[in-house]
Amino acid sequence: MQNVRLGLKENWKQFTILVIINAFVGGMVGLERTILPQIAEKEFAIAAKTAILSFIIVFGIVKAVTNYYTGTLANRFGRKNLLIAGWIIGLPIPFVLMFAKDWNWIIAANVLLGINQGLAWSSTVVMKIDLVGEKQRGFAMGLNEFAGYIAVAVIAFLTGWIAGEFGIRPYPFYVGIVLAFFGLLGSIFFVKDTRHHVAKEATTNNVPGLKNIFWETTWKNKNLGSVTQAGLISNLNDGMVWGIFPILLATKGFTISQIGIVTAIYPAVWGIGQLFTGKMADRFCKKDMLYLGMFLQAIALLLLVWANTMLHFIILSSILGWGTAMVYPTFLATVAENTNPQDRAKSIGIFRLWRDLGYAIGAILTGIIADFFNLNTAILFIALLTFLSAIIIYVRMSCRFTGSTKIFDWIFNRSKANTSTNIQL
């Protein structure tokens, strides 16, 4: 352990490998982002929104539970072993989607996808946090989530384009075979476990251990509880966007290629934005990053109801993506900041349990409301929940470190400094 060093610069080779692996993980979700709702309606003649969104419900529940057990078992079995297990389970997914004879096959594929994502994404997140130490966690998480969600966007666009040119099946899912194969090989031969980095940080970290990790992460600890509820709501609205966006756009007369473009812009801005917002989370008060990000999401969702043109949807998808980019790396950096290294993997697993249950809850709520009322009512309801989440963060959370800068203080101080300079000139 004497040779173990913490930091992004000190561990850049292993960190880069994990970023690449996580891009493959994100790409597996991108396989479904554009075309599964189309398969439901066109190939299996499923009309009810609740039934169409059932694949997201199953995915969210399975991924959430797997996240919890990944966090619990990470210290026992090692991060690398869980990562490899995730990829082995992910190998059949593109083949099941390719040859599915009815909607039950799609559900089965999403059970496997939930396990794959829970094991693989959670493992890469925890390993990156282990490597970088205390100072650059926000930036590290920004890079991690950038890789994952830019891959979601690229694969969502690519599968939409392939489906438009060659048909919905089987050709778009060939991409998934490549992703799963190289993800598994890279994890086996290039990734190294990080348990020694955890032991190294534990010798200097002064954050007290949590008495009840599950309850404190879920709600009792004001900072951790605020992050957990916001994570759930953020993924709740993402589950709605995932399932409803393609349907909403189709009802407005957009082609599958256009739908592919719009559904790719949101995760693209989300992914690229995290290169900047992750670094911002290291500098600015994490409370500010979180409530402002959730507020932007709420505004974008609210305005979706009145969107009609391609330009409207592109702008609102971009705002939604930027709001999500502000919160996503900040979530994980905040959990790491408020936990002892020995508690961290389990606390992150609990946070991700609740966060990814948001997929299922969002899909269920959206489907029920859309079936009983209409799509616009469902979107407005989710927008309201997102706004309430921002209020909870604003009221309940605090900045852990006094050295972090308040965003509005920074903006107003810069404005005053610029005014003063202009007067002197």
Describe the structure.
The protein contains 18 helices and no strands. The protein is mainly alpha-helical and 425 residues long.
Outline the secondary-structure elements:
Layout: H1 12-33, H2 36-42, H3 49-52, H4 54-77, H5 79-90, H6 93-99, H7 103-132, H8 137-166, H9 174-189, H10 195-202, H11 213-220, H12 222-251, H13 256-283, H14 286-304, H15 310-337, H16 341-372, H17 375-396, H18 407-424
Compact overview of the structure:
With 425 residues, the chain is mainly α.
Structure keywords:
425 residues; 18 helices
Name the helix and strand elements from N-terminus to C-terminus, one letter apiece.
Answer: HHHHHHHHHHHHHHHHHH
Uncertain segments of ≥5 residues (pLDDT<50)? Answer: none
Strand content: under 5%
Radius of gyration: 21 Å
Helix content: over 70%
Distance between the termini: 57 Å
Provide the residue-averaged pLDDT.
90
- Number of E-type strands: 0
Characterize the overall form.
globular
Described by its quaternary structure, the protein is: single chain
Q: Main beta sheet, described?
A: none
Structure classification: mainly alpha
